[in-house]
Design a protein that fits this description.
By secondary structure, the chain is α/β, with parallel strands linked by helices. Helix content is 36%, strand content 16%. Residues 1-20 have low confidence and may be disordered.
């Protein structure tokens, strides 16, 4: 088992050490490429699947894969948007693979997952943004593993409510749409996204039924603590049930720089404030990402 600092893995290895960011001492992860990790890697390769764990350079990949959890990335690995914090490659996506939902379901069954998380790149080139593939994936998982709960982390579908309802018709247990940052920073960090549209997605889901809603927020991009609180309040106003808050880490020198590192104590304070606001569950910490401990979120939350 090797213990390393995250600044050793969040920058390309070709970067000189003196150019790498110096991270606070609480940023450490354990690289554990054990049998479970290797099994998931082989399974993904055999089924021709992608995960956001790898594409977004998640620092928790070793922990999650060794616990037999992974977040499947559908609709390819090329995103039609260019967000200035995200490591996923921007480019022209390939053709939609109609067999992908079945392969994801097969992988979920092989892993014996109790909770599956499905996300995608943005596919603004498709009329429904890929909503039908999300729905098919949910349905295939239900057929193969009825007891498995399913969480989808969806894009905003450019505000297309018909596309959103296509996903809801497949009855995911949790629908996640990440707000990511505060309104002031949206034009800088998410130039193709809209803050109010993101809120409307979550609000529409709650109006349609009892599906649990979830959203995630990154901190460290230059926001104030008061702006964070205002986002939390906005999310509660649209009925959001579950919140994740994590530290932004710069994937490469081409991405937005880190403006500030929050302490573990500050994350604990955010968690307490979120619970006081009425969120059913809040996952907050330096290494937290939207799917971190996702299998616990559905257990800790209730309809």
């Amino acid at each position: 088992m090797t213990v390393i600092r995250l600044d050793e893995i969040t920058k390309p290895s070709s970067q000189p050490a003196k150019r790498r960011g110096i991270l606070p001492p609480w940023f450490k992860v354990k690289i554990q490429q054990g049998p479970q990790y290797q099994e998931i890697r082989r399974l993904l390769t055999a089924h021709g699947l992608h995960t956001i764990c790898e594409e977004a350079r998640c620092p928790n990949v070793w922990e999650c894969w060794n616990n037999r959890t992974a977040t499947f990335l559908i609709l390819g690995d090329r995103c039609t948007r260019r967000c200035h914090y995200c490591a996923v490659t921007t480019g022209r996506p390939g053709a939609v693979d109609e067999t992908e939902p079945q392969r994801v379901a097969e992988a979920v069954q092989v892993l014996g997952l109790r909770h599956a998380v499905i996300t995608s790149v943005n596919r603004d080139d498709l009329p429904d943004g890929g909503a039908s593939i999300f729905a098919d994936t949910i349905c295939h998982i239900r057929r193969r593993l009825p007891a498995c709960t399913v969480e989808v982390l969806i894009p905003d579908f450019q505000g297309n409510l018909t596309a959103l309802e296509t996903v809801l018709a497949a009855h995911p247990d949790i629908l996640n749409h990440n707000i990511e940052t505060v309104p002031r920073l949206f034009p800088l960090m998410r130039p193709q996204g809209k803050y109010l549209r993101a809120l409307h997605v979550l609000e529409h889901v709650k109006r349609q039924g009892e599906t649990l809603t979830k959203s995630g927020l990154m901190v460290g991009l230059g926001e104030s603590t008061e702006e964070i609180r205002e986002v939390m309040q906005d999310l509660r106003r649209v009925g959001c049930d579950i919140l994740t808050i994590g530290q932004y880490l710069r994937p490469t020198p081409a991405h937005a720089p880190v403006a500030r590192f929050y302490t573990p104590e500050e994350f604990e304070a955010f968690k307490c404030e979120g619970l006081a606001l009425g969120f059913q569950h809040v996952e907050a910490g330096p290494l937290v990402r939207s799917s971190y401990h996702a299998e616990q979120h559905v257990r800790f939350s209730s309809h």
